[in-house]
Amino acid sequence: MMMEVVKQVKIIVPDLASRIKQSREKDGRSVQVLATAAGISTAYWYEIEKGKRHWMSEEVLRGIENALGVDLGVRFND
């Protein structure tokens, strides 16, 4: 039996939800298109934008950045 161990790091990023929303509005594409490009559901994207998601993985954050073509400036220390 294999077990996957995942390292989790908690960081607080002020205004991340609003920065994602502003980037999306500037981009001009729909949430559905961007969420698909980021590899998440439209509902998940909206939850992030509304600040209802209190955590997300680095993979999701990087997917959002890639979909939007932006660097949100979030850095994780190893």
Automatic annotation (TrEMBL):
Pfam families in alphabetical order: HTH_31 (PF13560)
Stored InterPro entries: Cro/C1-type_HTH, Lambda_DNA-bd_dom_sf
GO MF: DNA binding
Superkingdom of source: Bacteria
Classification via SUPFAM superfamilies: lambda repressor-like DNA-binding domains (SSF47413)
Domain HTH cro/C1-type: 20-75
Protein name, UniProt field: Helix-turn-helix domain-containing protein
Species: Cyanomargarita calcarea GSE-NOS-MK-12-04C
High-level lineage: Bacteria, Bacillati, Cyanobacteriota, Cyanophyceae, Nostocales
